[in-house]
């Protein structure tokens, strides 16, 4: 169906071009565009408003300054490509950095970004109060996801810094919540213990029955938040491991009504043993080109993982939703590992080499073996290896930043600290696009609502897709809480209004901020920001 939509589109452009319509650009295609300088290494990237991305680095010697020292947080204006330093007091890890005074260790840190309505972020604040607001346990390299009551579930990590693997004596083999549950006492996880030592940044997804899928190392489970039970799923096939420092990436494929059947896709990583000391590993060891996909129903679990191949191997790839339901596969290296200068032959200080410069698209609805293509995709010359990030923006393109496989800022080495920001722009960025003229501030579960829309006359409106999306939080080849739920919709005959039905409950889309994108014949609108659910602070009760 998607390839049909593409065909319709290209036929239409040809027709319009031949009429010499000046509004229709020539040869619409995917492009990389350089956008300016991020000021800090964007090792974390989060869309926080229709116009702003929030970047964080470790407390380091980034060039962007605040109060006479390096900043390690910044707001990126998606409209002007301007960067503004944020006043951050917590570091990203337990260490200090000489050039930055008064850094508090960040391994129990919680930062709360207070959204504000100013498009440039003026007056938006970052709230930190390490004495009263912190995790129960030290965690370096944990993951966090939003769960059905709107709280965060925080999973795994390590109590100390590590050069490479997690560590049997210092692992944080536990799960905790924010705001706290269980009287603030972290829950032990047999899964995290079992998946040592290559289990940092566990990848986790909320499933539409309210349980949580997790994958770490080569193992996966479904976790019941209410009972703490872990259901063990089959290991990833062929010895492939996908969490830090052997990072692949994982994504929950788009959920569609009426059944919202969950499927998980895991790509890249490495098939080396997890008991080889890092100084016996090489930056030239081929990464894995394997994608593994599982349907998380009884029948799907019995069938197990189905394997397909990317066009190339990738360690630290990124998997990101497009509003039309495709998945972008981007970034990473063809060989080596995550982390810094621990293999016997780092390139500069990078444990990874052979950066992959051309992204691919994965079409979940296509047949096995026909899902992955880089046809029409552009090629960049900027390596995005360890400590890089990418996110879908409300504008509908992808923001790509960071990469720094170095201890601090290092501009003289191969794979130097990367401050150049790029966007990857889909063909529709230069076309006449549909728009959601206005959207309700809040969207209730199961609610049917109507929004005014505009649809360019160039579009036949053969396929209409309405995606409710959490754009996630990008770091270390994982997009925490990223989610795409398709909503049923009807376009009015005059093509001026769209009637949409929101997801039925908070398991399908946990309450919190979201963007709605309208895609007509593969041409996507900009995103309209909404609050799903009441907007009350977590934990929300029914
Ligand atoms: C940053 O925060 C510190 C500590 O709260 C404060 O002393 C300083 O004035 C702040 N700087 C800016 C530019 O807001
Ligand atoms: C594991 O952690 C312990 C405790 O912090 C530390 O003493 C030890 O050196 C670590 N082992 C490795 C291999 O990093
Ligand atoms: C997963 O990793 C463990 C530990 O290295 C290993 O014993 C097991 O055989 C692996 N599973 C598969 C299917 O390769
Ligand atoms: C590991 O992956 C490499 C590169 O994809 C491949 O050549 C090799 O056969 C794999 N080894 C095993 C044991 O699967
Ligand atoms: C950059 O990395 C190289 C290779 O490790 C090292 O020799 C050099 O001292 C580093 N420069 C800085 C500024 O850290």
UniProtKB/TrEMBL annotation:
Show where the Galactose oxidase-like Early set domain sits. Answer: 433-532
Task: Tell me which positions the record assigns to the signal sequence.
Answer: 1-20
Give the matching Pfam families. Glyoxal_oxid_N, GO-like_E_set
Q: Kindly give the Gene3D superfamilies that the UniProt entry links to this protein.
A: Galactose oxidase/kelch, beta-propeller, Immunoglobulins
Please provide the record's keywords in A-Z order: Signal
Aminoacyl-tRNA synthetase in keyword set = no
Q: Does the keyword S-adenosyl-L-methionine apply?
A: no
Residue ranges of every copy of the Glyoxal oxidase N-terminal domain listed in the record: 105-428
Q: Can you name this protein? A: Glyoxal oxidase
Stored CDD domains: E_set_GO_C
């Amino acid at each position: 169906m998607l390839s049909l939509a593409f065909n319709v589109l290209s036929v239409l452009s040809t027709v319009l071009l031949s009429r010499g319509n000046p509004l229709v650009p020539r040869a619409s295609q995917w492009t990389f565009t350089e956008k300016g300088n991020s000021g800090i290494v964007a090792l974390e990237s989060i869309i926080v408003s229709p116009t702003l991305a929030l970047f964080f680095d470790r407390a380091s010697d980034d060039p962007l300054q605040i109060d006479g020292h390096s900043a390690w947080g910044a707001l990126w204006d998606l409209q002007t490509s301007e960067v503004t330093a944020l006043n951050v007091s917590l570091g990203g890890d337990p260490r200090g950095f000489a050039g930055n005074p008064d850094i508090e260790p960040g391994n129990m840190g919680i930062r709360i970004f207070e959204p504000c309505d100013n498009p440039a972020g003026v007056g938006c604040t970052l709230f930190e109060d390490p004495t009263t607001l912190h995790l129960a346990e030290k965690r370096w390299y944990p993951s966090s996801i939003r769960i059905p009551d709107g709280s965060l579930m925080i999973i795994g990590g390590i109590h100390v810094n590590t050069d490479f693997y997690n560590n049997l004596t210092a692992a944080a083999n536990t799960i905790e919540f924010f705001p706290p549950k269980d009287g603030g006492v972290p829950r032990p996880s047999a899964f995290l213990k079992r998946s040592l030592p290559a289990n940092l940044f566990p990848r986790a997804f909320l499933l539409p029955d309210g349980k949580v899928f997790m994958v770490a190392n080569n193992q996966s489970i479904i976790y019941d938040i209410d009972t703490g039970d872990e259901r063990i799923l089959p290991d990833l096939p062929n010895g492939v491991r996908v969490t830090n420092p052997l990072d692949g990436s994982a994504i929950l494929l788009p959920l569609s009504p009426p059944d919202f059947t969950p499927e998980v896709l895991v790509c890249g990583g490495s098939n080396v043993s997890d008991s080889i000391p890092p100084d016996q590993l090489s930056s030239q060891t081929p990464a894995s080109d394997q994608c593994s996909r599982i349907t998380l129903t009884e029948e799907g679990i019995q069938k197990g993982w189905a394997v397909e191949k990317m066009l190339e191997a990738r360690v630290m790839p990124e998997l990101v939703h497009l509003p039309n339901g495709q998945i972008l596969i981007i970034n990473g290296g063809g060989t080596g590992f995550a982390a810094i200068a621990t293999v016997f032959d780092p390139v500069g200080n990078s444990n990874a080499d052979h950066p992959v410069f051309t992204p691919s698209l994965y079409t979940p609805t296509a047949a096995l073996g026909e899902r992955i293509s880089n046809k029409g995709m552009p090629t960049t010359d900027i390596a995005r290896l360890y400590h890089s990030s990418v996110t879908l923006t409300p504008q509908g393109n992808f923001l790509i930043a960071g990469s720094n496989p170095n201890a601090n800022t290092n501009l003289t080495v191969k794979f130097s600290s990367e401050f150049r920001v790029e966007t990857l722009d889909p063909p529709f960025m230069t076309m006449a696009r549909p728009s959601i003229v206005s959207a309700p501030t809040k969207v209730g579960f199961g609610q049917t609502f109507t929004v005014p829309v505009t649809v360019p006359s160039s579009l036949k409106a053969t396929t209409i897709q309405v995606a409710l999306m959490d754009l996630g939080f990008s770091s270390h080849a994982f997009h925490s809480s990223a989610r795409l739920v398709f909503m049923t919709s009807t376009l009015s005959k005059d093509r001026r209004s769209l009637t949409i039905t929101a997801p039925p409950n908070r398991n399908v889309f946990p309450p919190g901020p979201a963007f709605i994108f309208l895609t007509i014949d593969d041409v996507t609108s900009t995103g309209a920001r909404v609050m799903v659910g009441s907007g009350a602070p977590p934990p929300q009760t029914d």
